[in-house]
Amino acid sequence: MELVVGGGIVGLSIAWRLSRAGRPVTVVDPAPASGASHAAAGMLAPVSEVAYTEEPLLRLGVASLRRWPSFAAELAEDAGLPPGVLAPSRPPGPFGGARPVPSSPSRSGPVPSSPARSGPVPSYGLDFRADGTLDVAFGADDLAALDELAGFMDKLGLPVERLTGRECRRLEPMLAPSVRGGLLAPGDAWVDPRRVTAALLAALERLGVPVVRARVSELLRAPGGPGDGSGRGPAVVGVRLDSPAGGGDLPSEIRADGVILAAGAWSGELYDLPIRPVKGQIMRLRSPEPLLGRCVRGMVHGAPVYLVPRGDGELVVGATQEEMGFDTRVTAGGVYELLRDARELVPGVTELEVAEVVAGLRPGTPDNLPLIGPAGVPGLTLATGHHRGGVLLAPLTTAILLGEEPESAALCSPARHQPAPGAHDRPSGPYDGNSGSEEMG
Amino acid sequence: MELVVGGGIVGLSIAWRLSRAGRPVTVVDPAPASGASHAAAGMLAPVSEVAYTEEPLLRLGVASLRRWPSFAAELAEDAGLPPGVLAPSRPPGPFGGARPVPSSPSRSGPVPSSPARSGPVPSYGLDFRADGTLDVAFGADDLAALDELAGFMDKLGLPVERLTGRECRRLEPMLAPSVRGGLLAPGDAWVDPRRVTAALLAALERLGVPVVRARVSELLRAPGGPGDGSGRGPAVVGVRLDSPAGGGDLPSEIRADGVILAAGAWSGELYDLPIRPVKGQIMRLRSPEPLLGRCVRGMVHGAPVYLVPRGDGELVVGATQEEMGFDTRVTAGGVYELLRDARELVPGVTELEVAEVVAGLRPGTPDNLPLIGPAGVPGLTLATGHHRGGVLLAPLTTAILLGEEPESAALCSPARHQPAPGAHDRPSGPYDGNSGSEEMG
Questions:
Q1: How far is CA B315 from the centre of its chain?
Q2: Which of A2, A418, B37, B206 could link B8 by a cystine bridge, Cβ 3.0 to 4.6 Å?
């Protein structure tokens, strides 16, 4: 049996895909679906979410975005969700070439859309939408940055459309008058992460995958194990659980043939990893009718802010990035900055009701790339360090572990952060549930 | 039996004082202590809360503030609260004359204090504190306004101290460096309104006063009653209740010898009154240690903002004033303004945790004065229209109804808003529970 430590979107996705592939698996998490996945906005926007220097991360995002529609469809099926179809917020228009200009000033008029879509978008009951992301610019610096980004996307063959301020406001009439230009990434999508984790838990239940509600206190090592010569200790053979407060019938440990560490920002508490918590505060506003048709992003006061519309009229405003350790307080300063910046992008947000503010902790890594693959100690595989990309990268992460994405696997190999002691310096291979089992005691 | 419609701080206070005076009384409210009293900050600050043109309101506030210490002490006793004593946040210093200047730059040094206090302040378990309010000014206009206000207070014989910016920061080191001057009203106090309403409910229970959890749908009139010639209808003889959703054993009506309408912003729904809801959004921040020693107020961007410290480290930031009808949504714009303005006063608030944001509806009147006394129809007495002053004015309101404050009663007489049809144009007299009973059917 393989044990996934962590019940966020990454851990639950892995358990689901492994179980689907016929492999016995168990998940352990004190409160599944309550961490960063609960706070996340759910932008599936590799183009917009990335600094241009981060081409590897961009490639990962594009590869994972490509997997999202089938991931969502299969998940909805396994979770027993009704085949939800979300009507497009506006009638789909023809794809108008390299730099299509929307011709109608009306809010319901034709808009540029990606060639891949026409007609209603299936939402799979997950509020999955693919209406693109609009990056907007206010000043000359921002405009120049958008031009540069557009050129970069073009070079990579990614669909992108450069828009004037007026064109931006035709697409999104609620945008601030001060918006001077924009960049539409028509292929970008988004999803409601809370619906995704709920669907994953439902799918796991239907597949008979146990989800143990307990906190892992430490990794179990093979007694007297020889180690692997890397100095990272003997083989991992399971986990020890915190003794439950109320007694209960929980075991004190769970033994497994392989442990997959998907504990997000807490991963470094269980194994020596260059993972740090990056706090994000995010706000949910409630709108009687949708204020936006798609995700809108912009740089305001030097910080990125984004607005993600949900099918139910919610508008998610995110997110702060704070190096505060394991601090999940919602602060006056965080809320203030989110509202200040959202107002700059879309002044009309002030009228909306505040439904919720939450803080989550992203698992940050030194190079902003996740750690996916063999940890460098027998019996332990990593699937963590997704930082701001956990929701986007969940499908790709499962594919890497199943050996379906060798190129991405190489980019995410944990070996890049390890002192290279020979054998474990290899690039990540497919996760077979027995990595290093020959060394287990 | 007298029936109080409304279980906010005003209605509950009246019921308590009437019962204490030996008169049978009942309260009816669908959710006592959940309206404006729940949202209120609890400043007992007649001097600071008033525009200088509002001398009548100021006089009411001063009269009620004078009653607060004994009101709080007796309430604590009747509610069975332990005789809580709150240590002063800083060691009390000597009162230094007409315009004392604090001489110590340290945070724990002596501060100007009112002559009435030295040593620990009794909090009566209500978080009642009397460390004064500091009004601060940023610009030349604000400073001039403070000078004018100081002169006005002086003329009225109210204690007030004019401070420089530096003196303000000596008193409250967390104040923004841009504060250029201030006005200390050393006699101002504050209290936790939620503790007060909880204590009132406890006191009523101990006194055996029924609190009926139901919504009043209308006032019951004497059938075929002659009216009083004012066109305001026949005598009020009780109330009709909304039929409870879950069945229950509630009666469909409650008959009473007199009805006291203390339904706050909803009072106008039951009787023709010039009452409108004035929405206020307020925020509670959580501080590991107190950021302020007293209430701080200032004008920021043309709007007043205040910060009220609680004994448990909470800092209340208030409050918006919005004419939005019966809308109690917490909005992005309201939260934004509160945080923006609070930051201007005390930049350090950004570090605090956001504990709660709530919205309440104040009962506004055309002249900002409450309506207390005979309504002008037999059997009905008003105790409403307290606008922003419900907490401050609760003790005075009960005193007016018990005939103890004829001068204040004249200022609050509902007759001032009525077409004068003779008999009911008289100033308010003491409430005897039988107002106009000779005319009842």
A1: 18
A2: B37
Tally Cβ neighbours within 10 Å of residue B1: 14
Contact B358, B281 (CB under 8 A): yes
Dist. CA A376–CA A428, nearest whole Å: 10
d(C-alpha A196, C-alpha A68), whole Å: 11
Backbone angles phi, psi at B163, to 5 degrees: -120, 150
Alpha-carbon distance A331 to nearest alpha carbon in chain B (angstroms): 4
Cα-Cα-Cα-Cα torsion A8, A11, A12, A14, nearest 10 degrees, comes to: 150
Q: What is the 3-state secondary structure (H, E, C) of chain B?
A: CEEEECCCHHHHHHHHHHHHCCCCEEEECCCCCCCHHHHCCCEECCCCCCCCCCHHHHHHHHHHHHHHHHHHHHHHHHHCCCCCEECCCCCCCCCCCCCCCCCCCCCCCCCCCCCCCCCCEECCCCCCECCCEEEEECCHHHHHHHHHHHHHHHHCCCCCEEEEHHHHHHHCCCCCCCCCEEEEECCCEECCHHHHHHHHHHHHHHHCCCEECCCEEEEEECCCCCCCCCCCCCCEEEEEECCCCCCCCCCCEEECCEEEECCHHHHHHHCCCCCEEEEEEEEEEECCCCCCCCEEEEEECCEEEEEEECCCCEEEEECCCECCCCCCCCEHHHHHHHHHHHHHHCHHHHHCEEEEEEEEEEEECCCCCCEEEECCCCCEEEEECCHHHHHHHHHHHHHHHCCCCHHHHHHHCHHHHCCCCCHHHCCCCCCCCCCCHHHCC
The total of other beta-carbon atoms located within 10 Å of residue B90's CB is 18
The answer to whether the beta carbons of residues A33 and A201 sit under 8 Å apart is yes
Higher pLDDT, A103 or B298: B298
Query: For residues A291-309, b (16+ Cβ closer than 10 Å) or e, as one string?
Result: bbbbbbbbbbeeebbbbbb
Region B391-398: what's the mean pLDDT?
Answer: 98
Indicate the average pLDDT of chain A: 85
- Say if the Cβ atoms of B350 and A339 lie within 8 Å: no
The three-class DSSP label of residue A216 is strand
pLDDT in tens, A235-282: 999 999 997 655 567 889 999 999 999 999 999 999 999 999 999 999
Residue B229: pLDDT band (50, 70, 90) is: low
* Segment A48-103, tens digit of pLDDT: 655 556 789 989 999 999 999 999 999 999 999 876 655 443 333 332 222 333 33
Chain B window 259-298: which residues touch A at a Cβ cutoff of 8 Å?
A: 283, 285
- Which residues 325-364 of B are in CB contact (within 8 Å) with A? 329-333, 335-336, 339-340, 342-343, 349-354, 357
| Chain A residues closer than 8 Å to B340 by CB | 336, 340
Q: What is the reported pTM?
A: 0.83
- Whether residue B332 and residue A340 make contact (CB cut-off 8 A), yes or no, is no
Residue with tokens 């501060």: B111
Cα nearest neighbour of B316 on chain A: A332
The answer, yes or no, to whether residue A391 has pLDDT greater than 80, is: yes
d(CA A11, CA A216): 14
CA atoms within 13 A on the CB side of B389: 32
At A7 the three-state DSSP class reads coil
Q: Give ipTM to 2 decimals.
A: 0.81
Tokens at residue A191, please? 């999803």
| pLDDT tens digits for range B157-214 | 888 999 999 999 999 999 999 999 999 999 899 999 999 999 999 999 999 999 999 9
**Cβ distance B155 to B13 under 8 Å?**
no
- Angle among Cα A287, A289, A293 to the nearest 5 degrees reads 100
Shortest alpha-carbon distance between residue B256 and chain A (Å): 41
